[in-house]
Design brief:
With 123 residues, the chain is an alpha+beta fold. It has one domain. Helices cover 47% and strands 15% of the residues. The chain has 5 helices and 5 strands, in the order ββαββαααβα. Strands 4-3-1-2-5 form a 5-stranded antiparallel β-sheet, with helices on one face. α1 packs across α4 and α4 packs antiparallel against α5.
């Protein structure tokens, strides 16, 4: 299955995530990025123009509404989107030497498991 690769821009280590092309791809990457970095990370498609901006204080709900028509709570109510975001998070990997104590890829995999469990409990 083809995938798109995204850089996760963060202050620690070089992290990439992958996403499956489809109508909810950008939303799944946005949800994954926002949950992983709590607004302090952004992501940028390697071979494209899409991105998820950084929201260090606030503004994420406004951007989500403008971009996807839903705020963060609305995105989290979509079971299919949660599962896609879980796949994105599970794909996280460090692409260089890890130089910090922050294990972003490990935290991403933990979040993926939580999203999957939450999605199963809802459906």
């Amino acid at each position: 299955m083809p995938t798109n690769t995204w850089n996760v821009i963060n202050p620690s280590d070089p992290i990439v995530i992958t996403s499956a092309p489809g109508p909810q791809e950008h939303a799944s990457v946005a949800l994954a990025t926002l949950l992983l970095g709590e607004g302090k990370y952004s992501s940028r498609e390697l071979e494209g123009v899409r991105e998820v901006p950084m929201f260090p204080i606030t503004g994420h709900d406004e951007w989500l509404l403008e971009t996807f028509g839903k705020d963060i709570d609305g995105l989290l109510q979509d079971v299919e989107l949660k599962l896609l975001a879980a796949d994105v998070l599970a794909s996280a990997k460090c692409v260089g030497e890890r130089s910090s104590l922050n294990d972003i890829a490990g935290r991403a995999r933990e979040l993926a498991a939580v999203l999957r469990e939450n999605a199963q409990n809802v459906s």
